[in-house]
Amino acid sequence: MKVLSTVVLLSGLIVSSFAQASQLPNDALNSYQLLRSIFAKYDITKGDGPNDAPCKLTLILQEKQVYLGLEKAPGAALLDGVFTTLDMASAERVVVGSYGWDGEQTDFIIDRAPEALTVKAINIASERAGGGAEVAYCTFYPKK
Question: Pick from 6, 64, 69, 71: CA 20 to 30 A from residue 122's CA?
Answer without folding.
Answer: 64
